[in-house]
Design a protein that fits this description.
Layout lengths: L8 E6 L5 H12 L2 E4 H11 L2 H12 L5 H13 L7 E4 L5 H14 L5 E6 L2 H9 L1 E3 L6 E3 L26 H15 L1 H7 L4 E5 L4 H16 L1
Parallel strand pairs: 1-3, 1-4, 2-3, 4-7
Antiparallel strand pairs: 5-6
Helix pairs in contact: 1-9, 2-3, 4-5, 6-7
The protein binds BIS(adenosine)-5'-pentaphosphate.
Length: 224
């Protein structure tokens, strides 16, 4: 039976800067999928000074992963609120094999089926170029780049008019650490999902709209 794209449950995998957040926004706009970004949730917790935010801050600023138990609890709470008919795209979760196993158990418990895992593939030099030039909106989480995705007015978010900022973990030292952490802890998920027949690999080095189009074609070709 064909699956309605609006009810799909997707994971976006990829290194820091591969374009997960950018493509998740595209899928939200195109298909109305709920965008669940662990990075955005954690940054909001840090801004609000919650207990979770205070615990997560140091890990995030240095480019390390926040401990699995905190992330798994946070995501159990978030996913548990969604009905099986709500389509969503997970951006930044899971990031370790332990998180992927916990997600599998969570989905079984709440009766959701994972439709696909999209791995956005980009090499390190381009990732570094993207991350060092990225600017973000601290209010609505819109993402820009100083060379390739400029806002209409310099330094101001097109969507909500807030002043754009550079993330603390977009400094080169934290970026180097994030890329190393990605290789050791998150890259193993490519095999994890490949063996489960869920992996789709997309070249992330082409333009934003073209990457989105490739994701759409890959998913609709398989499930629609
Ligand atoms: P998180 O916010 O998830 O960071 P990340 O995975 O490092 O990913 P990024 O947000 O940096 O990159 P992205 O792939 O979304 O790229 P984007 O679309 O912005 O996590 C931050 C921290 O939180 C972690 O380091 C960790 O501490 C903690 N954390 C989060 N989740 C966790 C978890 N599950 N477990 C433990 N800890 C966790 O694009 C990047 C730039 O490239 C932008 O400027 C964009 O304009 C540009 N761009 C995008 N696509 C293209 C394209 N096709 N062509 C040209 N430019 C492009």
């Amino acid at each position: 039976m064909a699956v309605d794209v609006r009810t799909m449950h997707l994971i976006l995998l990829g290194a820091p800067g591969a374009g997960k957040g950018t493509q998740a926004s595209y899928l939200r706009e195109q298909w109305g999928l709920v965008h669940i970004s662990t990075g955005d949730i954690l940054r909001a917790e840090v801004r609000e000074g919650t207990a979770l935010g205070l615990e997560a801050k140091g890990y995030m600023e240095s480019g390390a992963l926040v401990p699995d138990d905190l992330i798994i609890r946070m995501m159990e709470e978030r996913l548990g609120k969604l009905g099986a008919e709500t389509g969503y795209v997970l951006d930044g979760f899971p990031r370790t094999v332990a998180q992927a196993e916990a997600l599998q158990a969570m989905l079984e418990r709440i009766g959701h089926t994972l439709n696909a895992v999209v791995n956005i593939d980009v090499a390190d030099p381009e990732l570094i170029r993207r991350l060092t030039g990225r600017r973000v909106c601290p209010n609505c989480n819109a993402v820009y780049h100083i060379d390739t995705m400029k806002p209409k007015v310099d330094g101001i978010c097109d969507v909500c008019g807030s002043a754009l900022i550079q993330r603390k973990d977009d400094q080169i030292e934290a970026i180097t650490n994030r890329l190393a952490v990605y290789k050791s802890q998150t890259q193993p998920l490519i095999d994890f999902y490949q063996t489960r027949g869920l992996l789709v690999v997309i070249d992330g080095t082409i333009g934003v709209a073209q990457v989105g189009e490739k994701i759409r074609t890959a998913l609709c070709g398989e499930v629609n």
